């Protein structure tokens, strides 16, 4: 808890504090380690954890929010430290995006691939394991896209954002209802 006695008006303390120059080198090291580790963890958790945002977007929101909030609330953190952290986070994010765009090997590691989950009205269940998604979640995503019958779907792709892109047949034969009350009666043959 913050004590009221910790607040007193002193420009030197507000902007610089009593830190020596070595603290800034430590901050650089801390930011690089934590940002790298967090990218790896977000990637490991998967698409569902980040939703419609990319992993870099989630990371910058969390990291910036913490750095900005700490600087505004805690009188023991000089603004120069917070500004250094915020600048490093922004620079790290720009570098992360730059490297990912320029290098396909890095992009394959840092960005999840697009997976085909439905082909020709059949669930491709072996692809579910890649992103640890289950049949019920795929059916829910299909229903959220206005699909009532599995046979309506020519192709469905699980995007990097965690959303499902669905391509329907123009004139489908309506069979294999994916409405919750009918799910247990569907024959799910993997058509790959």
From TrEMBL:
Keywords per UniProt: Cell membrane, Membrane, Transmembrane, Transmembrane helix
Residue ranges of every copy of the YetF C-terminal domain listed in the record: 102-171
UniProt-listed Gene3D superfamilies: bsu07140 like domains
Membrane topology reported for the UniProt record: Multi-pass membrane protein
Coiled coil: none
Keyword Transmembrane: yes
Stored InterPro entries: DUF421 (IPR007353), UPF0702_alpha/beta_dom_sf (IPR023090)
Keyword Transmembrane included in the entry's annotation: yes
GO terms for cellular component: plasma membrane
Transmembrane parts of this sequence: 21-42, 49-67, 79-99
Pfam families: DUF421
N-terminal signal peptide: none
Family as reported in the entry's similarity comment: Belongs to the UPF0702 family.
Protein name: Putative membrane protein
Organism: Aequorivita sublithincola (strain DSM 14238 / LMG 21431 / ACAM 643 / 9-3)
């Amino acid at each position: 808890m913050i004590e009221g006695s910790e607040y007193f008006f002193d420009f030197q303390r507000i902007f610089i504090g009593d830190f020596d120059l070595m603290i800034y080198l430590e901050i650089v090291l801390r930011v690089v380690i934590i940002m790298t580790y967090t990218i790896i963890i977000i990637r490991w958790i998967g698409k569902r954890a980040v939703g419609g945002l990319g992993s870099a977007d989630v990371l910058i929101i969390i990291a910036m929010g913490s750095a900005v909030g700490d600087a505004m609330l805690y009188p023991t953190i000089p603004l120069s430290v917070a500004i250094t952290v915020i600048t490093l986070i922004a620079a790290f994010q720009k570098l992360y995006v730059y490297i990912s765009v320029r290098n396909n090997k890095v992009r394959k590691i840092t960005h999840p691939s697009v997976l085909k989950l439905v082909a020709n009205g059949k669930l491709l269940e072996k692809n579910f394991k890649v992103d640890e998604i289950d049949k019920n979640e795929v059916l829910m995503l299909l229903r959220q896209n206005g699909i009532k019958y599995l046979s309506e779907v020519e192709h469905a792709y699980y995007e990097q954002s965690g959303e499902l892109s669905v391509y329907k047949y123009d004139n489908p034969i309506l069979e294999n209802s994916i409405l919750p009350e009918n799910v247990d009666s569907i024959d799910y043959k993997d058509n790959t």
